[in-house]
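In this supplementary section we document a worked example of the pipeline. Step one takes a protein sequence of length 360 as its only input; no multiple sequence alignment statistics are reported here. Step two produces a three-dimensional model, which step three serialises into structure tokens for compact storage. The input and output of this example are shown verbatim.
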Amino acid sequence: MNAARLWAIVQLELAQRVRSVAWYVLLGVFAVILIAVTGLSFLAWSWSPEPGGAIYSTIVYVVLLLVVLVSPTVSGNAVNGDRDAATLAPVQVTLASTADIVFGKLLAAWITGLAFVVVAVPFMVIAMVGGGVTVPVLAVSLLILVIEIGVFAAIGVGLSALIARPLFSVAATYLVVAAFVIGTLIAFLLGGSAVRTEVVSQSRWLEDTTVYDCGPGTGDPSCGDMTEPEYVCSEWQTSRYDMPRFDQVWWILAANPFVVLADATPATFDRRGEPEDLFGQIRASVRFAQIPPKTEIVTDGCTDTGSVEYPSTQERIEGTTPSWFVGLAVQLIVAALLMWGAWARTRTPARTLPPGTRVA
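The serialised model returned by step three reads:
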């Protein structure tokens, strides 16, 4: 690849988008949505002494959600749209190589997606100033957000080269994005419910065997002389039921972009060790799924005395395994394979072309 030719392709792609009035309208709508989300977040988390973390994480997730929704329309017809308009062939006969064209379109789509992050940065800084957000949280979340935008841009560009019709490639990009965002969650829930194990629960309790004699035909303990209550242990009660095994399928969620963002970003916890933002709450939900259920539960109400101290959410998270780098690696592999397919389909001279493809 040549840097000058690569940047020329990027400038050409960006110029086509910048000239569109709809692009500025879309950014304006995005800003209005963030204004509304920021205002509502401050009102919703006003009860918290340090609402900055919750507000910040809410804004970041809204940005990721909107980028996921817009990315397929930005990159899903990057290659076949030019081929359909007969503007790809003139570029292919220049000194620009196939790699220059494909990666130039990827960078242009990536930069286009980053425009949403630029619009969101002031709102993120406002939430950070509100308290509870540290510089590492801001840096890591921004980095993951930028990488996720690049991944979805690569998926869109790759499919736009592999699929001949722009409408089908945009739809296919939406399906792949939905598979990462919604499909992983559905597969996790169905897989965990399908794989079940039997749990045996045994319990016994103290029973009051005191006999209160307050006259014929009455058993009211409030009358007469009160006697010292007498307790005996009941018989052991055994019950059996099936428990879903989400610990065997939790890894499916690793590739979800919202899980990657939550698992990679440092979470903030209160004095009790409970998460104060959405990052920590989502991370806790995914990490808890790694813990296998107990197959034998014994509850002895005759000998257990006093209160039981349970570990905090922060302590339970520290005993589990992070998975964000695995999920991010899966996303990058899918994006790399699609980009390789885009290069193979776009290179010239082409051996075969889809039926009805317009060349020039």
